[in-house]
Amino acid sequence: MTFPKLVLVTGGAGFIGSHTCVDLLENGYEVVIVDDFSNSSPQVLARIEQASGRSIAAFYRGDLRAPGLVDHIFRSHDIGAVVHFAAKKAVGESVDIPLEYYDINVSATTGLLRAMLAHGVHRLVFSSSCSVYGQTNAIPLDESEPAAPTNPYARSKWFCENIIADACRRYPELTAVALRYFNPIGAHESGLLGEDPQGVPNNVLPFMIQVAAGLRPELQVFGADYPTEDGTCVRDYIHVMDVADGHRIALENIGDRGGMRVFNLGTGVGTSVLGLIRAFEEVCGVSVPARIVGRREGDVPQLVADARAVAQAWGWRTNRDLAAMVRDAWDFQLRQAPQPVA
Ligand code: NAD
Ligand code: WQD
């Protein structure tokens, strides 16, 4: 790698950002983090340092859209690349407050691109999502599948991909990679970092863990009449540390030839909701009371990645299986999160 090993990580205190910072620090990069803690907490910063055994070069608390903030960061540090995680990510909430989603997810990205170009920072790794594919029947899904996002959150990610692609066409010095993650779960092997959602969890594993911990009475399984092996929806769950690896490998390979590349990050293995419950119970030795209820609006029966493109281009592969994902997530819950009153 020829560019300065100082990386600006937006949303670096969040779930995927914090794990990526640990991985980058462990591999000789320096990180500058900007985060407004709208969906994370300050204690994560110390845990990133504890888990990696290294220091964060600088931290800025603030909204990415705050006038002058990103310019100030680029003026103050010799940033070689940006990894852009900061965004809002709840699909249901995005239907209720679409303009806020477009403002935070899209305007913050255009502002970041402008500042990057103004300060000669030309490498960007962007957090995209499998949700850009929308309602699709293709299994597994490769990157040639047309995007057809079905909600404001997913559209915000698709708009950003297009904005970044347009910027790369106009500014040939800009090189970008969009990584479309499937369903990241799990936690850092140390138990220091993990997913700690505020309020009622939207996603299945964080909810399941709260049920297992006695914080909620049961898991509702949304639909058992889908055309899948056991009737419940199938997803491609991927360990968050494998997602983190994907960002480091993207930085190692991004180069400076200009243009934008888009890759799926998934395992290629599908797991049903009942399969996930079974895996959790077997690996963690805790039972999860569950009840089948009606379908959740907007869910597709199966979403499984074909991630061969990034494997062929850069040799990225997942290294952790479903057992590691549920074990590490449960371990984080046991070590960090509040326990129920007996
Ligand atoms: P997260 O909410 O845990 O992390 C996002 C971080 O960004 C948080 O720390 C939050 O405080 C911060 N942030 C949000 N808006 C900000 C702003 N305007 N200014 C500064 N900081 C801000 O989410 P995550 O799960 O780590 O997701 C990271 C990225 O990956 C997001 O862009 C998300 O859309 C994308 N993604 C997530 C998933 C998933 O299932 N977790 C799947 C696909 C894509
Ligand atoms: C997984 C499965 C539910 C909760 C979301 C976003 C997507 C991406 C990844 C950001 C589904 C079922 C869930 C529950 C359940 N994120 N379920 N009971 O919907 O695949 O993807 O996260 O980009 O954009 O939409 O993930 O974890 O919500 O659901 O039965 O209490 O679990 O129906 O089949 P999803 P999820």
Describe the overall structure:
This protein is an alpha/beta fold and 342 residues long. It has a domain at 6-185 and 237-265: NAD(P)-binding Rossmann-like Domain (Rossmann fold, 3-Layer(aba) Sandwich), CATH 3.40.50. Helix content is 39%, strand content 18%. It contains 11 helices and 14 strands. The chain has helices spanning 15-26, 43-52, 69-76, 91-96, 98-118, 152-170, 204-212, 240-253, 273-284, 308-314, 322-336; strands at residues 6-10, 30-35, 58-61, 81-84, 123-129, 175-181, 183-185, 219-222, 234-235, 237-239, 259-265, 271-272, 290-293, 302-303. Strands 3-2-1-4-5-6-11 form a 7-stranded parallel beta sheet, with helices on both faces. Strand 2 (30-35), helix 2 and strand 3 form a beta-alpha-beta unit. Helix 1 (15-26) packs parallel to helix 2 (43-52). The radius of gyration is 19 Å and the shape is globular. The termini are far apart. The model has no long low-confidence stretch (mean pLDDT 96). Bound molecules: nicotinamide-adenine-dinucleotide and UDP-4-deoxy-4-formamido-beta-L-arabinopyranose. It comes from Cryptosporangium japonicum. Pathway: Carbohydrate metabolism; galactose metabolism. Residues 7-266 form the NAD-dependent epimerase/dehydratase domain. Its EC number is 5.1.3.2. Pfam families: Epimerase.
